[in-house]
Write a structure and sequence with these properties.
Elements (H helix, E strand, L loop, with lengths): L13 E2 L4 E3 L4 H4 L9 H10 L5 H4 L7 H15 L2 E3 L5 E8 L2 E11 L8 E2 L6 H14 L1 E2 L3 E5 L3 H13 L4 E4 L5 E7 L2 H11 L4 E5 L1 H16 L9 E8 L6 E3 L1 E5 L4 H8 L4 E5 L2 H10 L5 E4 L4 E5 L3 H7 L6 H5 L1 H13 L10 E4 L2 H10 L3 E4 L5 H9 L10 E3 L9 E2 L4
Parallel strand pairs: 6-11, 8-12
Antiparallel strand pairs: 1-5, 2-3, 4-5, 4-10, 5-12, 7-21, 8-11, 9-10, 13-20, 14-18, 14-19, 15-17, 16-17, 16-19
Protein backbone atom coordinates (compact mmCIF):
# COMPACT_ATOMS: atom_id res chain seq x y z
CA UNK A 1 0.00 0.00 0.00
CA UNK A 2 1.21 3.50 -0.80
CA UNK A 3 2.59 5.57 2.02
CA UNK A 4 -0.07 8.17 3.01
CA UNK A 5 2.69 10.74 3.47
CA UNK A 6 3.54 10.69 -0.23
CA UNK A 7 2.43 13.78 -2.16
CA UNK A 8 -1.16 13.56 -3.32
CA UNK A 9 -3.80 16.09 -4.32
CA UNK A 10 -6.41 17.33 -1.87
CA UNK A 11 -9.90 15.85 -2.21
CA UNK A 12 -11.22 13.95 -5.21
CA UNK A 13 -9.28 14.96 -8.32
CA UNK A 14 -9.93 14.05 -11.95
CA UNK A 15 -7.70 16.06 -14.23
CA UNK A 16 -7.40 16.28 -18.04
CA UNK A 17 -4.74 14.38 -19.97
CA UNK A 18 -3.52 13.77 -23.52
CA UNK A 19 -5.55 10.72 -24.49
CA UNK A 20 -4.10 7.98 -26.69
CA UNK A 21 -6.62 6.71 -29.22
CA UNK A 22 -6.81 4.30 -32.14
CA UNK A 23 -6.49 5.75 -35.65
CA UNK A 24 -8.01 2.76 -37.44
CA UNK A 25 -11.22 2.46 -39.39
CA UNK A 26 -13.00 -0.32 -37.50
CA UNK A 27 -12.96 0.65 -33.82
CA UNK A 28 -15.33 -2.15 -32.85
CA UNK A 29 -12.74 -4.67 -34.04
CA UNK A 30 -9.86 -3.27 -31.97
CA UNK A 31 -11.67 -2.77 -28.65
CA UNK A 32 -12.70 -5.36 -26.07
CA UNK A 33 -14.41 -5.85 -22.72
CA UNK A 34 -12.22 -5.20 -19.64
CA UNK A 35 -9.41 -7.72 -19.20
CA UNK A 36 -10.93 -9.49 -16.20
CA UNK A 37 -14.29 -10.28 -17.78
CA UNK A 38 -12.96 -11.77 -21.02
CA UNK A 39 -13.62 -15.51 -21.01
CA UNK A 40 -10.69 -17.71 -21.99
CA UNK A 41 -12.58 -18.97 -25.02
CA UNK A 42 -13.15 -15.38 -26.22
CA UNK A 43 -9.50 -14.30 -26.25
CA UNK A 44 -8.72 -15.96 -29.57
CA UNK A 45 -11.80 -14.52 -31.28
CA UNK A 46 -10.70 -11.04 -30.18
CA UNK A 47 -7.17 -11.71 -31.46
CA UNK A 48 -8.64 -12.87 -34.76
CA UNK A 49 -10.92 -9.83 -35.08
CA UNK A 50 -8.06 -7.42 -35.87
CA UNK A 51 -4.24 -7.50 -35.78
CA UNK A 52 -4.29 -4.44 -33.49
CA UNK A 53 -6.96 -5.57 -31.04
CA UNK A 54 -6.33 -4.17 -27.54
CA UNK A 55 -6.34 -7.69 -26.05
CA UNK A 56 -2.76 -8.01 -27.36
CA UNK A 57 -1.84 -5.40 -24.75
CA UNK A 58 -4.13 -6.16 -21.82
CA UNK A 59 -3.79 -9.98 -22.01
CA UNK A 60 -0.40 -10.50 -23.65
CA UNK A 61 -0.35 -14.30 -23.36
CA UNK A 62 1.88 -16.54 -21.27
CA UNK A 63 5.57 -16.76 -20.55
CA UNK A 64 8.05 -14.49 -18.78
CA UNK A 65 8.53 -12.25 -21.83
CA UNK A 66 4.85 -11.41 -22.23
CA UNK A 67 5.00 -8.07 -20.43
CA UNK A 68 8.00 -6.84 -22.40
CA UNK A 69 6.25 -7.99 -25.58
CA UNK A 70 3.19 -5.90 -24.67
CA UNK A 71 5.43 -2.86 -24.15
CA UNK A 72 7.12 -3.42 -27.50
CA UNK A 73 3.74 -3.81 -29.19
CA UNK A 74 2.41 -0.58 -27.69
CA UNK A 75 5.47 1.39 -28.73
CA UNK A 76 5.30 -0.14 -32.20
CA UNK A 77 1.67 0.87 -32.64
CA UNK A 78 2.46 4.40 -31.51
CA UNK A 79 5.37 4.57 -33.95
CA UNK A 80 3.27 3.24 -36.82
CA UNK A 81 0.38 5.61 -36.15
CA UNK A 82 -2.03 2.83 -35.19
CA UNK A 83 -2.35 4.74 -31.92
CA UNK A 84 -2.08 8.53 -31.80
CA UNK A 85 -1.85 11.07 -28.98
CA UNK A 86 -4.44 13.85 -28.82
CA UNK A 87 -2.93 17.34 -29.11
CA UNK A 88 -4.91 19.00 -26.31
CA UNK A 89 -5.36 17.73 -22.75
CA UNK A 90 -8.97 16.71 -22.20
CA UNK A 91 -11.47 15.14 -19.91
CA UNK A 92 -13.27 12.53 -21.99
CA UNK A 93 -17.00 12.02 -21.73
CA UNK A 94 -17.86 8.38 -22.35
CA UNK A 95 -21.38 7.17 -23.09
CA UNK A 96 -22.56 3.57 -23.40
CA UNK A 97 -26.15 3.00 -24.53
CA UNK A 98 -28.40 0.19 -25.64
CA UNK A 99 -31.61 -1.58 -24.62
CA UNK A 100 -32.02 -0.84 -20.92
CA UNK A 101 -28.53 0.69 -20.71
CA UNK A 102 -27.40 4.30 -20.40
CA UNK A 103 -24.07 5.09 -18.81
CA UNK A 104 -22.24 8.41 -18.92
CA UNK A 105 -19.00 9.18 -17.13
CA UNK A 106 -15.90 11.34 -17.28
CA UNK A 107 -12.54 9.74 -17.99
CA UNK A 108 -9.44 11.48 -16.71
CA UNK A 109 -6.36 11.18 -14.54
CA UNK A 110 -7.42 10.31 -11.01
CA UNK A 111 -5.33 11.67 -8.15
CA UNK A 112 -4.28 8.63 -6.11
CA UNK A 113 -5.26 8.50 -2.47
CA UNK A 114 -4.52 5.80 0.09
CA UNK A 115 -7.63 4.02 1.48
CA UNK A 116 -7.19 5.54 4.96
CA UNK A 117 -7.61 9.02 3.48
CA UNK A 118 -11.27 8.11 2.78
CA UNK A 119 -11.39 9.89 -0.59
CA UNK A 120 -11.22 6.93 -2.99
CA UNK A 121 -13.01 4.11 -1.21
CA UNK A 122 -12.28 0.47 -2.02
CA UNK A 123 -14.91 -2.05 -1.04
CA UNK A 124 -13.33 -5.33 -2.15
CA UNK A 125 -10.22 -7.27 -1.21
CA UNK A 126 -7.55 -7.94 -3.82
CA UNK A 127 -5.21 -10.86 -4.41
CA UNK A 128 -1.44 -10.32 -4.61
CA UNK A 129 -1.00 -12.40 -7.76
CA UNK A 130 -3.33 -10.26 -9.84
CA UNK A 131 -1.77 -7.04 -8.55
CA UNK A 132 1.70 -8.37 -9.39
CA UNK A 133 0.51 -9.26 -12.90
CA UNK A 134 -1.00 -5.83 -13.55
CA UNK A 135 2.04 -4.10 -12.03
CA UNK A 136 4.44 -5.93 -14.33
CA UNK A 137 2.27 -5.01 -17.31
CA UNK A 138 1.97 -1.37 -16.22
CA UNK A 139 5.72 -1.06 -15.72
CA UNK A 140 6.54 -2.69 -19.06
CA UNK A 141 4.07 -0.59 -21.06
CA UNK A 142 4.45 2.60 -18.97
CA UNK A 143 0.76 3.15 -19.43
CA UNK A 144 -2.76 2.71 -18.08
CA UNK A 145 -4.49 0.65 -20.74
CA UNK A 146 -8.05 0.75 -19.38
CA UNK A 147 -9.82 2.97 -16.87
CA UNK A 148 -11.04 1.86 -13.50
CA UNK A 149 -14.71 2.60 -12.75
CA UNK A 150 -15.67 4.90 -9.86
CA UNK A 151 -19.08 6.10 -8.69
CA UNK A 152 -19.88 9.15 -6.62
CA UNK A 153 -22.93 10.96 -5.31
CA UNK A 154 -23.49 13.57 -8.03
CA UNK A 155 -22.43 17.17 -8.52
CA UNK A 156 -24.98 19.44 -10.21
CA UNK A 157 -22.71 21.58 -12.39
CA UNK A 158 -20.86 18.54 -13.72
CA UNK A 159 -24.14 16.71 -14.34
CA UNK A 160 -25.40 19.67 -16.41
CA UNK A 161 -22.15 19.78 -18.35
CA UNK A 162 -22.30 16.06 -19.14
CA UNK A 163 -25.90 16.32 -20.35
CA UNK A 164 -25.12 19.36 -22.52
CA UNK A 165 -22.14 17.69 -24.17
CA UNK A 166 -23.88 14.36 -24.80
CA UNK A 167 -27.02 15.93 -26.19
CA UNK A 168 -25.62 18.77 -28.29
CA UNK A 169 -22.02 18.10 -29.35
CA UNK A 170 -20.66 15.84 -32.07
CA UNK A 171 -18.65 12.92 -30.59
CA UNK A 172 -15.12 11.97 -31.55
CA UNK A 173 -16.13 8.31 -31.54
CA UNK A 174 -19.49 6.70 -32.28
CA UNK A 175 -19.22 2.93 -32.59
CA UNK A 176 -21.58 -0.01 -32.18
CA UNK A 177 -20.13 -3.27 -30.88
CA UNK A 178 -21.26 -6.82 -31.45
CA UNK A 179 -23.34 -7.10 -28.31
CA UNK A 180 -25.62 -4.32 -29.58
CA UNK A 181 -24.25 -1.45 -27.49
CA UNK A 182 -23.27 1.98 -28.80
CA UNK A 183 -20.15 3.66 -27.41
CA UNK A 184 -19.53 7.39 -27.86
CA UNK A 185 -16.65 9.58 -26.73
CA UNK A 186 -16.22 13.34 -26.56
CA UNK A 187 -13.11 15.37 -25.64
CA UNK A 188 -13.70 18.28 -23.26
CA UNK A 189 -10.72 20.57 -23.87
CA UNK A 190 -12.02 23.89 -22.50
CA UNK A 191 -10.07 24.84 -19.32
CA UNK A 192 -13.22 26.50 -17.95
CA UNK A 193 -15.01 23.15 -18.12
CA UNK A 194 -12.07 21.49 -16.41
CA UNK A 195 -12.34 24.06 -13.62
CA UNK A 196 -16.07 23.38 -13.25
CA UNK A 197 -15.43 19.67 -12.77
CA UNK A 198 -12.51 20.26 -10.38
CA UNK A 199 -14.58 22.57 -8.18
CA UNK A 200 -17.51 20.13 -8.15
CA UNK A 201 -15.43 17.11 -7.18
CA UNK A 202 -13.22 18.67 -4.52
CA UNK A 203 -15.57 17.85 -1.65
CA UNK A 204 -16.62 14.39 -2.79
CA UNK A 205 -15.67 10.80 -2.11
CA UNK A 206 -15.81 8.10 -4.78
CA UNK A 207 -16.38 4.36 -4.46
CA UNK A 208 -14.35 1.99 -6.61
CA UNK A 209 -17.06 0.11 -8.47
CA UNK A 210 -14.73 -1.89 -10.72
CA UNK A 211 -10.96 -2.03 -10.89
CA UNK A 212 -9.78 -2.76 -7.36
CA UNK A 213 -6.74 -4.67 -8.59
CA UNK A 214 -5.79 -1.89 -10.99
CA UNK A 215 -6.20 0.75 -8.29
CA UNK A 216 -4.05 -1.31 -5.93
CA UNK A 217 -1.56 -1.52 -8.80
CA UNK A 218 -1.61 2.27 -9.20
CA UNK A 219 -0.73 2.61 -5.52
CA UNK A 220 1.97 -0.05 -5.72
CA UNK A 221 3.55 1.62 -8.74
CA UNK A 222 3.48 5.01 -7.08
CA UNK A 223 5.15 3.57 -3.99
CA UNK A 224 7.82 1.83 -6.07
CA UNK A 225 8.63 4.98 -8.02
CA UNK A 226 8.92 7.09 -4.89
CA UNK A 227 11.04 4.40 -3.22
CA UNK A 228 13.39 4.73 -6.18
CA UNK A 229 13.64 8.47 -5.54
CA UNK A 230 11.92 9.39 -8.78
CA UNK A 231 9.59 11.86 -7.04
CA UNK A 232 6.33 13.23 -8.45
CA UNK A 233 5.40 11.96 -11.90
CA UNK A 234 2.65 10.40 -14.02
CA UNK A 235 2.52 7.47 -11.57
CA UNK A 236 0.86 9.80 -9.03
CA UNK A 237 -2.33 9.50 -11.11
CA UNK A 238 -4.19 6.65 -12.74
CA UNK A 239 -6.72 6.37 -15.55
CA UNK A 240 -10.29 6.34 -14.22
CA UNK A 241 -13.89 6.86 -15.26
CA UNK A 242 -16.07 8.71 -12.76
CA UNK A 243 -19.84 8.16 -12.90
CA UNK A 244 -22.55 10.12 -11.11
CA UNK A 245 -24.50 7.32 -9.42
CA UNK A 246 -27.54 9.56 -8.94
CA UNK A 247 -27.91 10.37 -12.63
CA UNK A 248 -26.70 6.98 -13.88
CA UNK A 249 -27.27 4.31 -11.22
CA UNK A 250 -24.93 1.34 -11.68
CA UNK A 251 -26.06 -2.25 -12.01
CA UNK A 252 -24.63 -4.87 -9.68
CA UNK A 253 -24.24 -8.42 -10.98
CA UNK A 254 -22.92 -11.60 -9.34
CA UNK A 255 -19.55 -13.27 -9.82
CA UNK A 256 -19.73 -17.07 -9.76
CA UNK A 257 -17.13 -19.68 -8.81
CA UNK A 258 -16.03 -22.90 -10.45
CA UNK A 259 -14.05 -25.47 -8.45
CA UNK A 260 -12.29 -27.89 -10.81
CA UNK A 261 -11.81 -31.35 -9.42
CA UNK A 262 -14.54 -31.14 -6.78
CA UNK A 263 -17.24 -33.52 -8.07
CA UNK A 264 -20.73 -32.14 -7.72
CA UNK A 265 -21.96 -35.25 -5.90
CA UNK A 266 -19.23 -34.84 -3.28
CA UNK A 267 -19.94 -31.12 -2.89
CA UNK A 268 -23.64 -31.81 -2.31
CA UNK A 269 -22.99 -34.64 0.14
CA UNK A 270 -20.66 -32.50 2.25
CA UNK A 271 -23.11 -29.60 2.25
CA UNK A 272 -25.85 -31.71 3.82
CA UNK A 273 -24.11 -31.52 7.19
CA UNK A 274 -24.77 -27.77 7.47
CA UNK A 275 -27.27 -26.72 4.77
CA UNK A 276 -30.70 -27.69 3.53
CA UNK A 277 -29.96 -29.22 0.11
CA UNK A 278 -32.80 -29.14 -2.45
CA UNK A 279 -32.37 -31.21 -5.62
CA UNK A 280 -33.38 -29.98 -9.08
CA UNK A 281 -33.04 -32.22 -12.15
CA UNK A 282 -32.95 -29.08 -14.34
CA UNK A 283 -30.36 -26.41 -13.49
CA UNK A 284 -32.69 -23.73 -14.87
CA UNK A 285 -35.24 -24.55 -12.17
CA UNK A 286 -32.57 -24.33 -9.48
CA UNK A 287 -31.44 -20.91 -10.77
CA UNK A 288 -35.03 -19.68 -10.75
CA UNK A 289 -35.47 -20.93 -7.18
CA UNK A 290 -32.30 -19.09 -6.13
CA UNK A 291 -33.89 -15.78 -7.12
CA UNK A 292 -36.72 -16.36 -4.64
CA UNK A 293 -34.80 -18.08 -1.86
CA UNK A 294 -34.11 -16.31 1.45
CA UNK A 295 -30.46 -15.38 1.82
CA UNK A 296 -27.91 -16.77 2.20
CA UNK A 297 -28.44 -19.29 -0.58
CA UNK A 298 -26.39 -20.81 -3.39
CA UNK A 299 -26.87 -23.13 -6.35
CA UNK A 300 -24.24 -25.79 -6.97
CA UNK A 301 -24.27 -27.46 -10.37
CA UNK A 302 -22.21 -29.46 -12.86
CA UNK A 303 -22.68 -33.05 -13.98
CA UNK A 304 -26.01 -34.40 -12.74
CA UNK A 305 -28.85 -32.62 -10.95
CA UNK A 306 -28.35 -29.12 -9.58
CA UNK A 307 -28.79 -28.35 -5.88
CA UNK A 308 -30.07 -25.29 -4.06
CA UNK A 309 -28.39 -24.69 -0.67
CA UNK A 310 -30.52 -22.80 1.86
CA UNK A 311 -30.94 -22.35 5.61
CA UNK A 312 -27.40 -22.97 6.87
CA UNK A 313 -26.89 -24.07 10.46
CA UNK A 314 -26.71 -20.76 12.36
CA UNK A 315 -24.41 -22.18 15.04
CA UNK A 316 -21.86 -23.36 12.49
CA UNK A 317 -22.10 -20.06 10.61
CA UNK A 318 -21.58 -18.08 13.82
CA UNK A 319 -18.46 -20.05 14.75
CA UNK A 320 -17.00 -19.68 11.26
CA UNK A 321 -17.48 -15.94 10.74
CA UNK A 322 -14.80 -13.53 12.06
CA UNK A 323 -16.02 -11.90 15.28
CA UNK A 324 -14.25 -8.62 14.50
CA UNK A 325 -16.30 -8.09 11.36
CA UNK A 326 -19.55 -6.12 11.32
CA UNK A 327 -22.88 -7.91 11.33
CA UNK A 328 -23.54 -6.59 7.82
CA UNK A 329 -20.25 -7.97 6.52
CA UNK A 330 -20.91 -11.37 8.13
CA UNK A 331 -24.31 -11.57 6.42
CA UNK A 332 -23.00 -11.16 2.86
CA UNK A 333 -23.26 -14.28 0.71
CA UNK A 334 -19.68 -13.83 -0.46
CA UNK A 335 -18.47 -13.62 3.14
CA UNK A 336 -20.32 -16.84 3.96
CA UNK A 337 -18.86 -18.43 0.84
CA UNK A 338 -15.26 -17.44 1.65
CA UNK A 339 -15.38 -18.01 5.43
CA UNK A 340 -17.74 -20.97 5.76
CA UNK A 341 -18.85 -22.84 2.66
CA UNK A 342 -15.45 -23.15 0.99
CA UNK A 343 -13.10 -23.64 3.98
CA UNK A 344 -15.35 -25.33 6.54
CA UNK A 345 -17.67 -27.39 4.35
CA UNK A 346 -15.39 -28.19 1.42
CA UNK A 347 -11.94 -27.74 2.98
CA UNK A 348 -10.56 -25.13 0.57
CA UNK A 349 -10.02 -21.39 0.28
CA UNK A 350 -11.35 -18.91 -2.26
CA UNK A 351 -8.00 -18.20 -3.87
CA UNK A 352 -6.68 -17.84 -7.41
CA UNK A 353 -5.11 -21.30 -7.48
CA UNK A 354 -8.11 -23.27 -6.30
CA UNK A 355 -11.18 -21.42 -7.53
CA UNK A 356 -11.98 -20.00 -10.95
CA UNK A 357 -14.10 -16.93 -11.55
CA UNK A 358 -16.98 -16.48 -14.01
CA UNK A 359 -18.61 -13.06 -14.27
CA UNK A 360 -22.41 -12.88 -14.46
CA UNK A 361 -23.18 -15.90 -16.62
CA UNK A 362 -24.39 -18.79 -14.45
CA UNK A 363 -24.80 -21.13 -17.40
CA UNK A 364 -21.24 -20.46 -18.56
CA UNK A 365 -20.03 -21.37 -15.06
CA UNK A 366 -22.02 -24.61 -15.18
CA UNK A 367 -20.59 -25.48 -18.59
CA UNK A 368 -17.06 -24.89 -17.27
CA UNK A 369 -17.75 -27.09 -14.24
CA UNK A 370 -18.99 -29.91 -16.45
CA UNK A 371 -15.95 -29.64 -18.72
CA UNK A 372 -13.60 -29.90 -15.73
CA UNK A 373 -15.53 -32.48 -13.68
CA UNK A 374 -16.01 -29.86 -11.02
CA UNK A 375 -18.64 -27.83 -9.21
CA UNK A 376 -20.05 -24.45 -10.16
CA UNK A 377 -21.15 -22.27 -7.24
CA UNK A 378 -23.79 -19.82 -8.41
CA UNK A 379 -24.25 -16.73 -6.23
CA UNK A 380 -26.98 -14.09 -6.09
CA UNK A 381 -25.89 -10.49 -6.62
CA UNK A 382 -25.15 -8.40 -3.55
CA UNK A 383 -27.26 -5.35 -2.79
CA UNK A 384 -25.69 -2.00 -3.68
CA UNK A 385 -26.77 -0.63 -0.30
CA UNK A 386 -24.89 -3.38 1.53
CA UNK A 387 -21.72 -2.75 -0.48
CA UNK A 388 -21.88 0.99 0.15
CA UNK A 389 -22.48 0.47 3.87
CA UNK A 390 -19.56 -1.94 4.20
CA UNK A 391 -17.24 0.47 2.37
CA UNK A 392 -18.41 3.45 4.42
CA UNK A 393 -17.57 1.52 7.58
CA UNK A 394 -14.03 0.98 6.34
CA UNK A 395 -14.46 -2.73 5.61
CA UNK A 396 -13.98 -4.62 2.37
CA UNK A 397 -16.05 -7.42 0.96
CA UNK A 398 -14.22 -10.64 -0.04
CA UNK A 399 -12.43 -10.69 -3.36
CA UNK A 400 -14.54 -10.89 -6.50
CA UNK A 401 -17.79 -10.16 -4.67
CA UNK A 402 -19.17 -7.50 -6.99
CA UNK A 403 -19.41 -6.71 -10.67
CA UNK A 404 -20.69 -3.20 -11.22
CA UNK A 405 -21.81 -2.27 -14.68
CA UNK A 406 -22.18 -1.38 -17.37
CA UNK A 407 -18.39 -1.45 -17.71
CA UNK A 408 -16.57 0.90 -20.10
CA UNK A 409 -15.28 -0.56 -23.34
CA UNK A 410 -11.52 -1.06 -23.30
CA UNK A 411 -9.48 0.58 -26.04
CA UNK A 412 -11.45 3.77 -26.71
CA UNK A 413 -8.94 5.93 -24.85
CA UNK A 414 -5.62 4.95 -23.21
CA UNK A 415 -3.12 6.85 -21.08
CA UNK A 416 0.64 6.63 -21.54
CA UNK A 417 3.08 8.10 -19.03
CA UNK A 418 5.05 9.82 -21.78
CA UNK A 419 1.95 11.71 -22.94
CA UNK A 420 0.78 12.74 -19.46
Amino acid sequence: MANPELPSPGGLELRPFHGVRYAVGDLAAVTSPPYDVIARDDVQSLLDSHPNNIVRLILPGDGPARYAAAGDTLRSWLGQGVLTVDDAPALYLYEQSGPGVLLRGLIGELGLRAPQERVVLPHEDVTPGTVADRLALMQATESNLEPIFLVYDGAEATARLIAEVAEHRVPLIDVRTGEGLTHRLWALTDPAEHDTVAADLSGHQALIADGHHRYATYLALRQAMHDQGRGPGPWDHGLAMLVDSVAYPPHLKPIHRVIPGLPLSEAAARAKGSWQVHDYPDAADALAALEEAPQPAFVIAGDGPAHLLTDPDPVQISHAMPAERSERWRSLVTSILSEFLLPKVWGMHDDEETVRIVHHDARAAIRMARAESGTAVILPALDVEDVLAVAAAGERVPRKSTSFGPKPRTGLVLRTFSAS
